[in-house]
C-alpha cells in the first residue's frame, strides 16, 4: 500500500528539495494545496483571531445569551453564557490543533520505535510487538479512549497522551513493513559490514529512509487526533470547560439544536475543515512520494 | 424527653406543603391524597387503561434493599409496601402495619426503645402466599445479614430481639434511641421470606429480577434498556389500583423525554422531568398539565474548610457576597429554583425561615476581604500571610447548566480578586476519594441532606463525620463545630418533633453564620402530565413520582 | 488449511488475553470506584459504601481480582453488572440486536451506494462525477459522525419533520415500519463513512478488472457493457469486499457508539456510555471483550476468506 521512497529523494538539501520531483508533484496536487492553504488560514485565524475580535472568549454577559450570528458584533453569535462564539472558536482551535499536533508527535514516536524494532529484528521480537499492536487495534479505539478518559483527570495533556496511546498502531505497522523491506537493501548490508551498531543502523540508516511514509502517516494522524479529541470532548470526557475545544463546544449543543443551531453548526464546520485539510495534505503527500505516480 | 403527651410524628399543616408547590394555572386542582374530593371524577370500578411514565434513567435494581439509585424506587413503590408511608405533609400513614405505632397507641415505649407493631390481616403476596409477621422479621434481619449487600444499615443495626408474637404482631427492642428510625422504616419495603429466604445468594437471587411484593402493581416484564411493564394487583389491600397496566419507559435523553411528552407518547414525565428551558413552552401545551414542584435537593457551593484559604470566616462570607444568586437562577435556571439560606428543604417542618438574607454585592465582598487583611498582590489575586486566595472548583463534568453557573461565578470571583480555577471531573473520579476524603478545594453540588422527612444531618455536619480527620461520614467540608455537635446530639435524642425543632432551627442558624457551604437554591422541578390523570401528588418526602401510583386513574 | 485456521485462532486468543489485561488494569487502577456513583444517594453513608465494596471483593489486590475475573470468564461466566446484578453476557446480548440492526442497515446502505458510486466513478474516470466522488469521500471521512448526526437531526427532524430525532420506535407501536422510520437517520449517518470507503475500494477494484484481458475479450464477444460490468466486475470484486467488511468492524462499532448516543438508540454503544457513567466495570469490561471478539472474528473471517481465495497466503 505504502510506497517506498528512494533515499535520493530526501537526502537533498532544502533549497533543492523545493525543486525536487516530489515537491513538484505535491504542488500540482490541487486538493493538497487547498489543504495547506486552509490549515494556514485556520492556524493564523486561531493565533491572531482573538486579538481582532471585540470580545474576550471568557467574557460572560448573561443579558446577551443566545444572540444569533451577525448580531451585536458577534459574527458567530453567542453561547448560553453570552460569550462570543467566534472568540471561543479561535481559542478552541488553538487547543484542538495543539492537541492534534502533540498527540501526533507522541503517537509517531511510539509507533516509530515499535515499528523500527519489530521491522529490524524480525522473528520473535517482530511477532511479539506486532501481536501487541494487534491487541490495541482490536479495541475499537473510541471504546478504549473513552474507557481511559472516563477514569482520569481530564486535562489537555492527559487527553493528548491517551489519544496518542490509541493512535500509534497504524504508524507502527507502516514503519515495520517499511523497515523490513529496507533491511535487506545493499546500503544496510554495507552498514553491517562496516560494523555499525544496531542502534546506529536502526535510527541513523533505516529511519531516515522510511521518513516518507512516516510523514504521510503523521499528517493523517493529526487529522485522526483532532477527530478523536472532538469525539471524546463531545461525549463529555475530554477537554473540560471553561477551556474551549472544538469538541467540547459541541458538547451540550444538541440541547440547543432547536433554539440556537449555530452552537452546533459553527464548531462542526471548523472540525470538518481542519480534518479534511489534513487528510487532503496526507493524500497529496502520499501521491507525491510515490515515485510511480509520474509513470502513470 | 418522655412526656405523657408525646406524639412521635410531626403534625405539619397541609397548607405548608401545598403552599410551597407553586402551581401554575390549571394545575391548582391537585387532588388531595387522602379522601379524594367528591368534585373529582370517580375512580373506575375495576382497573382500566394504562399509563406510561417516562424516566430519564433506567430502573435496574428491583430488590429494594440492594444498592440502588433514586429512579429504582419508582418501581419499588409500585410493587412493595413499607410498614407505613410518608405523605406529602410528612405524616405517616399505615401501609402493611394496621396502624402507625406511636407512644400514644402503645406501639412505641415512652423511651422509644420498645416497639410493637400490629400488622394488617389478610394481605397476600403477588404469588398468593399470605403476608405475615415472619416476613417483617425476615426483612429486618436481612438488612444486617453479613453477606447481604444491603444498601443501608443505619437504624436497622440497632434492632434487637425481634419476636413474632402472632402472624399479625411483631415486637423488637432498640439498642438506643434513634430518632430517624421511623423515617427509615417508612422507606424499608417488606420483602417475602418465602421467595427470597431460601436463595443461596440473596444478592443474586432470581427474585431480584422478578420481584414479588404486596403492592398495587405486580411485576410484568422488563425489556432491558427500554421499558418495564407492571400489572394491576387485583387483590391489593389498599386503595386502587385503578390502572390495568403501568409502563415505565426509559428515555435516556431529557430533550427526547420532553418531545415524547409533547407528542403524547408518554403520559407523565418522571424523574429528571422537564428541563427548565422547556418550561415556558410546556405551560402552553394543549391537554397537558404542567406543575412546578419543589425538590428536596439543595444546590450549594461547598468549601473545604481544611484548606488554609477557607479557614477565615471573612473569606467565606465575602465569597457568598460575590455570588449573584439571582442572576444564576433567573438566567441559567429560567427563574425556577427558590433561593435559600439553608440546607433544609423549605417544605420541612424544621425549616428555619428567619435566617439572614443573602446580599449580592461585590463592594461588600471586597470590603470584607480588605477588612480581614486579604490584599491584592501584584497579579491582582488577594493573599494573606502567604496564603493566596486561589483555589480550584470542581463539579461533575457533563452537567451543563451547573457548569455554566460555575463559569459565571468564576468571573464574579475574579472581579473581587479571587482566583478560581475550574477543574471538573468525570463522576467516577469526582465522587470517589476526591470527594469522600476532602481532597477538593471547593465543589458545586446538589445534595439532599435529609432522610425522608427526618431532620437529622449528623452524617453531613457532625465533627466525627469527616473521613479526612479519621471520622466516618460525609462531612467532606471538614466543618467542625462543638456547637453543631451539641445541637445534633440534642435533636437526635428526642422523639418529640416540637422539642427537636428548636435544636434544628438553631443548627441552621449556626451553619448559615459559619458558611461551610454557600447555599444557592433549592431545586424546583417541572413536572408535566396529560390532562385527565387523577391521583398524581408531589411528595417532597418521597421524591419519586410513583410513590402513590396505586391511586392514579384516568378521569372517565 | 486447518493448521492455518488453528494457528490464527490461537493468535486471536492470545490477543484477547492481552486485550483483557490492558482493559482490566486501566479500569481498576483508575481513581474513583464503582461505589462513588452512590456517594450522594440520600440516606447512604460512607460506612455502607465501604462495607458493600468489601462484600463485593473490590478491596482485594487487583491481580487477585483479575485472576478471579479471568477464571470465571474461562468458565463462561462474564460476571454480573454492578447496576442490576444481571449476568453481563445477558445484558450485552439484550443490547446486541439494536446495534446489529443499525450496523447491518448502515452496511447495506454503504455497500449499495458505495458500489454504485465506485463503479460509476471507474467507468467515467476523471469525469466531474468521479472527481466529486473522490473529494466527497475524503470529506465524508473527515466529518465527525456525531456532528453529521446533529446536522441530520436539525435538518430532517427539527426543520423538515420527516424523521424522528431519536429512539428506536414509538412507544406502544414498534411495528416494522415504525422501526424502519426511526432507523433511516441513524443508519444513514453511520453509513456515511462506509460509503466513502466502499466507493474508493470499488473504484480501484473496477479499474483493475476493466483493464484485464478477459473483460476486453468479453466485450469483443459483443456482450453488452452493462452485462460485462455486472457479471465480471462486480462478481470479481465481491469476495474481497467481504474481507473489507470484516476489517470495517472496529470502525463501524466506534461509529455506532456515537450514533447511538446522538439518536438515543438503545444499543451496545449507549450501554457502554451508560456503564462508564455508572462505573459498571463488569459491563464495561464485558463490552470491551465482546467488541474485541467481534473485531477478531471480523479479521479472522477476512483472513480466512482471502486465504481461501488466494492460496499463496497460506504459505506466508
Automatic annotation (TrEMBL), chain B:
Signal in keyword set: yes
Gene Ontology molecular function terms on file: peptide transmembrane transporter activity
GO cellular component terms, semicolon-separated: ATP-binding cassette (ABC) transporter complex; outer membrane-bounded periplasmic space
Name of the molecule in the record: ABC transporter substrate-binding protein
Compartmental location: Periplasm
GO annotation, biological process: peptide transport
Organism of provenance: Mesorhizobium mediterraneum
PANTHER family tied to this protein: D,D-DIPEPTIDE-BINDING PERIPLASMIC PROTEIN DDPA-RELATED, PERIPLASMIC BINDING COMPONENT OF ABC TRANSPORTER
Cited InterPro entries: Peptide/Ni-bd, SBP_5, SBP_5_dom, TAT_signal
All copies of domain Solute-binding protein family, residue ranges: 92-465
Keyword tags: Signal
A Pfam short name: SBP_bac_5
Family per record: Belongs to the bacterial solute-binding protein 5 family.
TrEMBL record, chain C:
Residues of the ABC transmembrane type-1 domain: 96-306
Membrane topology: Multi-pass membrane protein
Keywords: Cell membrane, Membrane, Transmembrane, Transmembrane helix, Transport
GO annotation terms (biological process): transmembrane transport
Transmembrane segments: 12-30, 96-119, 131-159, 179-198, 237-263, 283-309
GO CC annotations on file: plasma membrane
Protein name per the record: Diguanylate cyclase
Originating species: Mesorhizobium mediterraneum
Amino acid at each position: 500500500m505504502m510506497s517506498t521512497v528512494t533515499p535520493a529523494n530526501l537526502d537533498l538539501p532544502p533549497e533543492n528539495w523545493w525543486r525536487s520531483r516530489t515537491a513538484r508533484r505535491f504542488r500540482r496536487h490541487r486538493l493538497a494545496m487547498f489543504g495547506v492553504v486552509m490549515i494556514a488560514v485556520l492556524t493564523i485565524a486561531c493565533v491572531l483571531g482573538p486579538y481582532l475580535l471585540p470580545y474576550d472568549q471568557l467574557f460572560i454577559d448573561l443579558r446577551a445569551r443566545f444572540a444569533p450570528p451577525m448580531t451585536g458584533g458577534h459574527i458567530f453569535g453567542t453561547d448560553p453564557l453570552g460569550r462570543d462564539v467566534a472568540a471561543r472558536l479561535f481559542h478552541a482551535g488553538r487547543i484542538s490543533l495543539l492537541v492534534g499536533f502533540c498527540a501526533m508527535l507522541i503517537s509517531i514516536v511510539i509507533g516509530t520505535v515499535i515499528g523500527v524494532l519489530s521491522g529490524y529484528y524480525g522473528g520473535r521480537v517482530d511477532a511479539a510487538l506486532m501481536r501487541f499492536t494487534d491487541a490495541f487495534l482490536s479495541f475499537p479505539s473510541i471504546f478504549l479512549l473513552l474507557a481511559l478518559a472516563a477514569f482520569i483527570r481530564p486535562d489537555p495533556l492527559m487527553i493528548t497522551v491517551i489519544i496518542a496511546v490509541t493512535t500509534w498502531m497504524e504508524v507502527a505497522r507502516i514503519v515495520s513493513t517499511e523497515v523490513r523491506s529496507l533491511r535487506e537493501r545493499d546500503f544496510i548490508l554495507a552498514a553491517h559490514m562496516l560494523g555499525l551498531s544496531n542502534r546506529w543502523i536502526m535510527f541513523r540508516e533505516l529511519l531516515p529512509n522510511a521518513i516518507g511514509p512516516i510523514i504521510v502517516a503523521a499528517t493523517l494522524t493529526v487529522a485522526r487526533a483532532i477527530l478523536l479529541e472532538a469525539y471524546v470532548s463531545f461525549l463529555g470526557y475530554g477537554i473540560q470547560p471553561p477551556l474551549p475545544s472544538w469538541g467540547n463546544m459541541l458538547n451540550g449543543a444538541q440541547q440547543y439544536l432547536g433554539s440556537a443551531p449555530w452552537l452546533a453548526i459553527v464548531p462542526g464546520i471548523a472540525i470538518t475543515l481542519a480534518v479534511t485539510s489534513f487528510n487532503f495534505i496526507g493524500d497529496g503527500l502520499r501521491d507525491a512520494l510515490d515515485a510511480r505516480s509520474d509513470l502513470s | 424527653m418522655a412526656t405523657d403527651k408525646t406524639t412521635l410524628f410531626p403534625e405539619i399543616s397541609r397548607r405548608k406543603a401545598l403552599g410551597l408547590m407553586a402551581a401554575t394555572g390549571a394545575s391548582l386542582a391537585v387532588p388531595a391524597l387522602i379522601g379524594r374530593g367528591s368534585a373529582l371524577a370517580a375512580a373506575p370500578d375495576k382497573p382500566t387503561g394504562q399509563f406510561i411514565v417516562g424516566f430519564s434513567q433506567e430502573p435496574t435494581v428491583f430488590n429494594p434493599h440492594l444498592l440502588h439509585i433514586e429512579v429504582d424506587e419508582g418501581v419499588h413503590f409500585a410493587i412493595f409496601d413499607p410498614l407505613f408511608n410518608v405523605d406529602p405533609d410528612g405524616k405517616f400513614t399505615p401501609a402493611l402495619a394496621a396502624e402507625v405505632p406511636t407512644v400514644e397507641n402503645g406501639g412505641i415505649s415512652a423511651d422509644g426503645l420498645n416497639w410493637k407493631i400490629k400488622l394488617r390481616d389478610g394481605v397476600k403476596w403477588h404469588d398468593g402466599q399470605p403476608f405475615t409477621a415472619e416476613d417483617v422479621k425476615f426483612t429486618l434481619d436481612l438488612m444486617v445479614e453479613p453477606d447481604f449487600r444491603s444498601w443501608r444499615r443505619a437504624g436497622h443495626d440497632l434492632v434487637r430481639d425481634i419476636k413474632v408474637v402472632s402472624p399479625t404482631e411483631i415486637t423488637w427492642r432498640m439498642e438506643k434511641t434513634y430518632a430517624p428510625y421511623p423515617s427509615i422504616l417508612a422507606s424499608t419495603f417488606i420483602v417475602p421470606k418465602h421467595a427470597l429466604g431460601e436463595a443461596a445468594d440473596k444478592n443474586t437471587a432470581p427474585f431480584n429480577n422478578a420481584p414479588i411484593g404486596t403492592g398495587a402493581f405486580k411485576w410484568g416484564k422488563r425489556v432491558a434498556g427500554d421499558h418495564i411493564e407492571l400489572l394491576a394487583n387485583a387483590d391489593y389491600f389498599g386503595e386502587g389500583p385503578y390502572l390495568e397496566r403501568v409502563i415505565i419507559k426509559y428515555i435516556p435523553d431529557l430533550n427526547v423525554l420532553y418531545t415524547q411528552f409533547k407528542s403524547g407518547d408518554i403520559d407523565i414525565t418522571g424523574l429528571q422531568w422537564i428541563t427548565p428551558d422547556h418550561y415556558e413552552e410546556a405551560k402552553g401545551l394543549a391537554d397537558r398539565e404542567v406543575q412546578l414542584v419543589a425538590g428536596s435537593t439543595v444546590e450549594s457551593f461547598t468549601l473545604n474548610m481544611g484548606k488554609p484559604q477557607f479557614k477565615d470566616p471573612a473569606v467565606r462570607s465575602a465569597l457568598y457576597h460575590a455570588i449573584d444568586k439571582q442572576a444564576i437562577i433567573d438566567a441559567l435556571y429560567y427563574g425556577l429554583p427558590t433561593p435559600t439560606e439553608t440546607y433544609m428543604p423549605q417544605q420541612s417542618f424544621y425549616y428555619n425561615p428567619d435566617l439572614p438574607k443573602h446580599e449580592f454585592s461585590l463592594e461588600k465582598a471586597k470590603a470584607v476581604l480588605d477588612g480581614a487583611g486579604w490584599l491584592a498582590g501584584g497579579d491582582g489575586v488577594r493573599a494573606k500571610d502567604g496564603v493566596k486566595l486561589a483555589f480550584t472548583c470542581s463539579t461533575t463534568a457533563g452537567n451543563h447548566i451547573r457548569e455554566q453557573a460555575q463559569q459565571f461565578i468564576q468571573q464574579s470571583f475574579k472581579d473581587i480578586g479571587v482566583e478560581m480555577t475550574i477543574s471538573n471531573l468525570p463522576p467516577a473520579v469526582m465522587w470517589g476519594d476526591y470527594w469522600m476524603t476532602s481532597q477538593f478545594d471547593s465543589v458545586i453540588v446538589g445534595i439532599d441532606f435529609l432522610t425522608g422527612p427526618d431532620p437529622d444531618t449528623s452524617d453531613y455536619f457532625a465533627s466525627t463525620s469527616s473521613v479526612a480527620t479519621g471520622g466516618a461520614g460525609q462531612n467532606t467540608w471538614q466543618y467542625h463545630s462543638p456547637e453543631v455537635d451539641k445541637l445534633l446530639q440534642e435533636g437526635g435524642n428526642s422523639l418529640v418533633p416540637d422539642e427537636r425543632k428548636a435544636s434544628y432551627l438553631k443548627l441552621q442558624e449556626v451553619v448559615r453564620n459559619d458558611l461551610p457551604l454557600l447555599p444557592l437554591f433549592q431545586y424546583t422541578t417541572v413536572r408535566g402530565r396529560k390532562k385527565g390523570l387523577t391521583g398524581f401528588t408531589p411528595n417532597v418526602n418521597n421524591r419519586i413520582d410513583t410513590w402513590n401510583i396505586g391511586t392514579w386513574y384516568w378521569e372517565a | 488449511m486447518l493448521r492455518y485456521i488453528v494457528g490464527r485462532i490461537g493468535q486471536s486468543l492470545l490477543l484477547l488475553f492481552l486485550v483483557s489485561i490492558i482493559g482490566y488494569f486501566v479500569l481498576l487502577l483508575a481513581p474513583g470506584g464503582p461505589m462513588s456513583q452512590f456517594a450522594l444517594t440520600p440516606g447512604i453513608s460512607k460506612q455502607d459504601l465501604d462495607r458493600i465494596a468489601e462484600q463485593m471483593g473490590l478491596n482485594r489486590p487487583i491481580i487477585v481480582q483479575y485472576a478471579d475475573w479471568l477464571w470465571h470468564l474461562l468458565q463462561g461466566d462474564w460476571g454480573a453488572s454492578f447496576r442490576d446484578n444481571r449476568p453481563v453476557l445477558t445484558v450485552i446480548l439484550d443490547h446486541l440486536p439494536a446495534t446489529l440492526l443499525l450496523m447491518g442497515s448502515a452496511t447495506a446502505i454503504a455497500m449499495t451506494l458505495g458500489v454504485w458510486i465506485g463503479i460509476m466513478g471507474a467507468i467515467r474516470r476523471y469525469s466531474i462525477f468521479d472527481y466529486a466522488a473522490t473529494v466527497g469521500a475524503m470529506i465524508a471521512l473527515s466529518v465527525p459522525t456525531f456532528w453529521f448526526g446533529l446536522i441530520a437531526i436539525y435538518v430532517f427532524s427539527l426543520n423538515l419533520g420527516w424523521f424522528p430525532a431519536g429512539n428506536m420506535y414509538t412507544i406502544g407501536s414498534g411495528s416494522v415500519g415504525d422501526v424502519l422510520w426511526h432507523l433511516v437517520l441513524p443508519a444513514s449517518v453511520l453509513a456515511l463513512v462506509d460509503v466513502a470507503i466502499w466507493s474508493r475500494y470499488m473504484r480501484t477494484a473496477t479499474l483493475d478488472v476493466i483493464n484485464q484481458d478477459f473483460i476486453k475479450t468479453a466485450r469483443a464477444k459483443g456482450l453488452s457493457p452493462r452485462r460485462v460490468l455486472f457479471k465480471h466486475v462486480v462478481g470479481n470484486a465481491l469476495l474481497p469486499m467481504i474481507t473489507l467488511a470484516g476489517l470495517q468492524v472496529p470502525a463501524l462499532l466506534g461509529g455506532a457508539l456515537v450514533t447511538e448516543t446522538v439518536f438515543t438508540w438503545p444499543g451496545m454503544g449507549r450501554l457502554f456510555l451508560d456503564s462508564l457513567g455508572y462505573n459498571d466495570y463488569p459491563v464495561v469490561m464485558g463490552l470491551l471483550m465482546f467488541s474485541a471478539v467481534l473485531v477478531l472474528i471480523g479479521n479472522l473471517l477476512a483472513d480466512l476468506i482471502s486465504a481461501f481465495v488466494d492460496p499463496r497466503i497460506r504459505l506466508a
